Structure formats: C-alpha cells, structure tokens
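Incident review: delayed structure delivery

Summary: a single-chain prediction request sat in the queue longer than the usual turnaround. Root cause was a stuck worker, restarted by the on-call engineer. No data loss occurred. The affected request and its eventual output are reproduced below so the record is complete for anyone auditing the incident later.

Affected input:
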Amino acid sequence: MDGMNETDVLRLAASVERASEHPLARAIVDAAAERKIAPVDVTDFDAPTGKGAIGTVTGRKIALGNARFLGEMGIAVTGLEQQAERLRQDGATAIYLAVDGKASGVIAIADPVKATTAQALKALTAEGVRVVMLTGDNRTTAQAVARRLGITEVEAEVLPDQKSAVVEKLRREGRVVAMAGDGVNDAPALAAAEVGIAMGTGTDVAIESAGVTLLKGDLTGIVRARRLSAATMGNIRQNLFFAFIYNAAGVPIAAGALYPAFGILLSPIIAAAAMALSSVSVVGNAPRLRRVRL
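Output delivered after worker restart:
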C-alpha cells in the first residue's frame, strides 16, 4: 500500500464495488461489512465488462482492476507487482486499487475450493470427460488453482466476450461442450455450449442462460446430472425397442401378411392388446430410473 492503511483501501474499494454485481465485487463489499467498515457514496460509476470498476469517492477518482485495465488508463502498477504475484502464487486473485491515477494498494480475493470439487473433477475425468478451466483470472492464479485440482488444461486471462469464442472453437473441433459458470460474464458461453450449467448460487442472468442449474453450486451435481442423463437415454432406447418390437411384429400379422403363406391371422383384439402391452412396458420401464445410483 502506498501511504494508505488496510481500512482506507477497503473502504474506497467497497464504496465503488457495491454498485457492481460481479462476484469479486461482492467479496470486497462483504469483507468491508465483516470489518464494520462503512462505504460511502460513489459517483461516475462504470464497470467495463471483465476489466474492473471506476468511480469517484469523496472527490477522488478510484479505479479497481487488473494490471491491463489500469495500464489502459496510464496507471503503472510496477511497485505493487511483486506483492501481487506472491498473492497469485497462493491461488488468490489480485486486484489493484488506484487513487487519482496512482496505484495505492492490492486486494487479494481467494475463493475457497469446495472439498468435493477435486473428487467431482476426478470422477468426470474417469468417465472420459475432458476438463478445461476457462477463466478471466491471471494465469499464475489459474495455474495455482488448477494444480490443486489436478486440471491440466487452462485457458486464463480470457475476457467475457472471448469465453463464448473458446466454446465455439471446441465445438468446431467436434467436441460436445458443457459449460459451467455462475457469473454475468459466463452467460454468453453458457448459451453457446450444448449444455449450459449454472450454479444456483450464481447470478440470475447465468441461470437464465443455462439449461441445467445446480441448486447447491456443488460440482458433484454435474457428475450426478451426467449419470442421470445417461440412464435416461438408456431408458428411452429400451422403450423405443419395446414399442418397435410390438408394432413391427403385431401390425403386419394383424393385417394378414402371414395368412397367404402360413394361414396365420392375428385377431384384432389380440393386436389391440399387444399395443396396450407395449404402452404398459414403456410405463413400467420408466420407474427404474428411481433406482439409479447417482
């Protein structure tokens, strides 16, 4: 920090970020509330997508974001880069705070990895699913988290409008893509994927853009959803087989196809009963899904 204490940095950051809906912004606001640091009013607020936020607080121009964003405004972060890199190596996201055009502090935000996440990713990999981390975060931070979770493929420093492009690229390669996300920035990618999976703890926009919502925000839900989907498709194929066999065998015989050669003729009553039995087979087969182990 440059001439500012932790309280000053957090107050200014929370004052600007409370006008934003980004998860990182929420983390800053919550951190200030936990420390009983009261934010003040912000004016001239703006939040360029995927970059950061700016605003005026008590007459001072505040900017929050990554080094690239501040660099676009002519603000150098050289003096704080070493400190930020140490934070990234621990798996935290480093956000710079600039006051009146001068870098004044770094805020570290770490999203604790759920205890079940590594297990869920391992299960998906074992089932032949290729797992790719797609994030707008710094590459050092992304790699640190990926190593912890056993993820070998990482697409880092991806802007929100580029996430959907990555999904489209994978689809052009012939991949069937499922995208999991929880933020406003993930919505285009969720819509571009064959299967969009939103976290129930995420934003409304992400949930609206997705086809599947995990109410608890737990990645083991993806494993369970995939297994349930596979079981459902298997059930559908079995039902189609039953229906096809009954119709393929019953209808021609009832129409007299075998009568000229073999003298076999199926009574319309029996044919109707066979048709009804096909429906019973389908309906009776469906409840087996309740016994699927997810």
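Verification: The first strand starts at residue 42 and ends at 46.
Action items: add queue-age alerting; document worker restart procedure.
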